[in-house]
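Slack export, channel: ligand-projects

TW: morning all. Re-posting the request from yesterday since it got buried. We need the structure predicted with the small molecule present, not the apo form. The ligand is pyridoxal-5'-phosphate; the SMILES is in the block with the sequence. No rush, but it would help planning for next week.
GE: picking it up
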Amino acid sequence: MQALEALESNVRSYSRSFPAVFTRAHGSIMITEEGRKIIDFLSGAGALNYGHNNHGIKAAIAEYLASDAVVHGLDMATPARLEFMETFSSFILRQRDLQYRFQFTGPTGANAIEAALKLSRKVTGRQNIVSFTHGYHGMSVGALAASGNRFYRTGSGVPLSGATFMPYDGYLGPGVDTSDYLRMVLLDKSSGVDSPAAVLVETVQGEGGINVAGKEWLRSIQAIARDAGALFIVDDVQMGCGRTGNFFSFEFAALSPDIIVMSKSLSGYGLPLSMLLIKDGLDAWRPGEHTGTFRGNNLALVSATAAVNSYWRNETFSQEVQRKGELMRSRLEAIASAHGNGFFVRGRGMALGFDCQRGELAEATARKAFDKGLIVERCGADDEVVKFLPALTIDDETLNEGLEIFEESLAETLRGLSGPSPR
Ligand SMILES: *Cc1c(COP(=O)(O)O)cnc(C)c1O
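GE: finished. pasting the full token output, ligand included:
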């Protein structure tokens, strides 16, 4: 760790929250160089929905590497590329009556968001992007302009422009439907809000605090976007690939986004892979107009195909995720009510947040949890929400063990914070 401190930029972050050297990992367990086994409820911030080194997926890429097939070929045609699009089309899109074209972007989520915003601006001839309070879309300047967090925004060093923030579902309290406000300002020619090229939304805000948008609200936002002549973009970078219980996070609301942004768990193995799914009539790109060296890396496409084949050919996996999500929710709700007042549990599927209301309580709890063998991350404006993103493939025993460690850590932290009793 000392060598790391000497060598690596001050910007490093997770090695501070989880101070250990990790040597191996399998499924939901990470192993440190001292041989300590730690349960992983962070899952690469949602990039490891199928766990670390998933053996089925690994076999596919090991075989691909062993055969000297093309690993890097820019966006030249390869069987791996074709097979991914065919597999994804049959088992993900066609089964859901969806029809989209694939655009492989640079490998990060932010790369894909940039491409989506650029395409929306090109299609509509407009500049403004409507995004939402507490939204998170990545660190590049265009994506950051649409992200709420002040700490990150300040770090950009340039004026962030081109986005207008609207209140997310629930932002003004449970009694207010914030989509009414969006409708008003977009239809009012004198509202001061420029007509948007796109409305960009997460169905559950992962970094923003596990804020959950309701079905009706999402449907309104989509309808308002259409009425305003804007593209409707769902950022499914973190909540896609089964995290909320279905492959896409918007299926429960039967949305039909113009563009779907996918990354994080898309490759199924933690390999970088990002893409846009674009509705047929909106593919306005000219050949080569948006480019990049690492668009659709073949190795990642092979693992992505294996992930679809392993988990998404029928409903079984999705039902399992929903079952485990319910298990987590009821356990966390029991913890919330057992340990005092003011704790809230939010989320959908296996993306759950435990709102501690106070950043320092969440921080101390997460730190204690790590000492006891659990990796959990925090999110929200003050990092006041403990975030649970276990691998979707986790077994019940490990899941319960992790939740147990969380409860002990919270209880001990609360006892510590209340201090010695006065005499
Ligand atoms: C992580 C994330 C991004 C950015 O992805 P990177 O790969 O970190 O650039 C964008 N949107 C959402 C919702 C994310 O969770």
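GE: first-pass observations. DSSP finds 14 helices and 17 strands in the chain. Residues 107 and 175 are 40 Å apart (CA to CA).
TW: perfect, thank you
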